[in-house]
Amino acid sequence: MATLATGSSVRLSDERRFFATMAGVIALTTFIGFAPSYYLSALFDARPLSTLAHVHGVVFTGWIVLYVAQTGLITARRADLHRIVGPVAVALAIVMVPLGIATAIITKQVVAAHHLPPQGPPLIFPLGAIVTFAVLVAAGVAMRKRAAWHKRLMLLGTVAVLTTPLARIVKFMQLGLTPAIGGILLTDILLAALVIYDVRVRGKLHPATVWGGGFFVATQALRILLNMTPAWQAFAKGLTG
């Protein structure tokens, strides 16, 4: 019994360390991706942002900060405070969905006014990211009483919205990929980290990783395929034209 208790304690410690590390990676990625246009815009002589863009930046940054804080509370063994803060996270997530959709459409409208690619604006990628976020976070909230499910679904939901800052990093670094595809591929690295963690610590994938990760990848493939269809291209042009 003592051996089992010790093994469980070690695994729980590893789990806290893993999710805290992932939270740090998410925060750092967000900062790097948006530093030139938002966080350090004065240093990069970036163009002024609209009021909507500022609100979007504040709200989505708030989510990242809250995610890091909530993960930190669990790491510090303050699940009581984590539960108290939970409703704030739910309210913020609810605001993020329509705000993310509106910002994506209006941002692409601005881009389209200057240069519209022949296949239309890549609107499906930010819209797909926010829909993936909404579904996974909603599932995470629904599973909040099952900690292992909850933390994996919330992680994957948060990683979903990293597509945009990662796409900007791809563009800065000139990696030879289109920013949208590059952003998707880089988020898959974070998903792979969760898969590796599960296999290393549990010996198999957790069901939340299977179902959440499967949905995560399926929406990515759907975005890529849908973006190539004439029907979606026409719809995106009409929406942003």
Q: In brief, what are we looking at here?
A:
This protein is mainly α. It has 10 helices and no strands. It has one domain (10-240).
Can you characterise this structure?
The chain is mostly helical and 241 residues long. It has one domain. It is built from ten helices and no strands. The chain is globular and about 50 Å long.
How many domains comprise the coordinates?
1
Q: How would you sum up the major sheet? A: none
User: Helical element count?
Assistant: 10
Q: What is the H/E order?
A: HHHHHHHHHH
Terminal residue distance: 66 Å
Q: What structural category arises from helix and sheet content?
A: mainly alpha
The Rg value, from CA coordinates, equals 19 Å
Question: How many extended strands?
Answer: 0
Gross morphology is globular
Mean pLDDT: 88
Stretches where pLDDT is under 50 for at least 5 consecutive residues are: 1-6
Helix fraction by DSSP (H/I, runs of at least 4):
over 70%
Strand and helix map with partners:
Elements: H1 2-39, H2 41-44, H3 51-75, H4 79-114, H5 124-142, H6 147-160, H7 163-173, H8 179-202, H9 207-227, H10 230-240
Helix pairs in contact: 1-3, 1-6, 1-7, 1-8, 3-4, 4-5, 5-6, 5-9, 6-8, 6-9, 7-8, 8-9
Summary tags:
241 residues; mainly alpha; 0% strand
